[in-house]
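FW: tagging you since you asked about this chain on Friday. Here's the raw sequence from the shared folder, copied in full. Didn't touch anything.
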Amino acid sequence: MTQGSTATFQVTLTSQNGFQGEVPLSLADGQDPVPQGLSIASTDPSPISLFPNASVQVTVTLSADAQLAPGTYRLTLRAQGGSVVQEKPLTVQVVQPPVEVHPSLLEVQMSNSGHYGFLSGSVTFRLFVRPPSNLSNYVLLEVRGPNGESVGGLSLNPGSVYVDPQRENTYTITLSVTSGGAQENVAKFWVPGDNPLRLRLKAGQTVEEVPITLRVVASPPGLVWSGRYMSDWGVKASPFPIAADSQGNVFGMLLHLTANTTYAPYIPYILGLAPDGRVLTKFPLEGITIPGNYPVEARKAVALDSQGNIYALVATTVSGRNVLILRKVSQSGATFWEVQIDPADVEWNHHSSRVAVGPEGRVYLSYGLSNYPQNVPPYGVVEAREGATGALIWRREFIATRTTPPDPQGNTTTYRVETHAMNGLVVGPDGSVYVAGEAFGNLFESLYGASNPNDSVSGSGWVAKLDPADGSIVWGRQFIGQLPPPYTGSAYPVDIALTPDGSRLYMVGGTSMNFPPYTNQGFQDGLLMVFDAQSGTLLNYKLYGGPSSDGLGGLGFTPDGRYVYLVYTSRFPAVLKVSTDTLDLQNPVWTYPAGEALWGVWRNPLVVSGAGGEFVYVPFSLASGPDGLQRILP
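HL: got it, structure written out here
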């Protein structure tokens, strides 16, 4: 048998003098002592039972540690039943394996380099090829996964060696490890920590494999892997909505182009990926097609419940009308139920509808409606539905108003104005519902004075807490910046999230206005606000940006709530890790430079999952190119 392997042999036990009972087997000293690292791993059957005047054939499996010295060991195989002991000589010859890697545990320290935050590192090991290996002449080297699958981000130098089959061959090999990229046609990527792998040696039809373990050690920030999904999916460029479970599996909604023609319709797909980038599931949302003129706005949101079921929110057209479809599906694509928001027209603009699942399994969605035939301005809606059936539980509308100046008779008119409730939706640990939006009139606070319907006014942002029982408003807060007349601007949310303990509500977005003591630095700055989740009190706010158009487009927290991750969208986009104690955006704990990967993105969701918050995902789009997803080392 070879070092680090097992070997089997058979032995027959026969009952003598009517013996009945169990008979364990063991190794005992013979002419040589039993070496450490050699043992009986198992027997079949187990336990071994003998009956009077009967025999049993036993298959014995020996195990030899990789560190066991080669040589011949003359030992004793002992069978003992009660006071009866039988022994037979057993000779075990241990030889070196024909292919060996030393060390078999390869540890590589990764470093962050380059504008795109790629991680890279290398480790050197020795490779031995000996008789009786069947390899000869030029042998190709390759690293594969434990099941033979391809693994991205790994390469060997040299990639081939010459083997003399008559002697022991020794080689020095360097394994290079880099952030896995989509340019590789791979089944999965490496991940931080221990990666079980196999070194494959191939010469013609002859293949030998040896197990190795790659231990990746890296300090944040950095890119673990980045996948793009155009070749399989035919997707237009845009960040896609994602959700992740507690195990780090991430699910998103992509679009598949049905034909390579202008304005050809799209089919929405669900794609599920493991933390190492393996595809777990992919399936179309059967029966739903997306018009080709606005595909980006069609993929509204995805969410997961505690059983792993997926809720997909899609905007499309039915009989010439814009509708919103909420479908609950399993991870294999089976549909549980579907509801359609109709007959009002769903907005197809940059405002993002959302879906969220509460701790009790109830599903919530926020969206905007516009009754164009009745010339009613857009208004926001939040719904609560049964998770099991999709049945409506309650519905809450958000409608802001303004008032005209007095006419000569002193009369005024209050009228509805544009209101959105689609820029953030989250459910707290206690089931409370939080929603965010934008308004061009007074919703919760009197921010707007008298004005006529056609007057140009600034847009304001708002957040609200709803009672999950009936959707009643627990508190609502509205905010707007300052600009000298006659200039107007906007302040709007893009996303909201609760700290892990549910005590504070964070909002990220953008503004073209001043928020004293902060002055707008360019066309638009990122806006960060923190509210007390119980009372709605504004606890803190920050502006962040430079001379160009900037924004904050996504956020997530470490499990202990000490740090918040912020997606900074600008000409030079990045992910920032910031202390929640200081909220010092100018001096973050680290900055992950995303390069062009987030270019032009108005909203870019960020998802954190895992018991230790070890899985951080950010979808991306290029200025021109496919949908993509990044896993970032936090």
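FW: Helices lie at 230-233.
HL: agreed, and The CA atoms of residues 329 and 335 lie 4 Å apart.
FW: great, closing this out.
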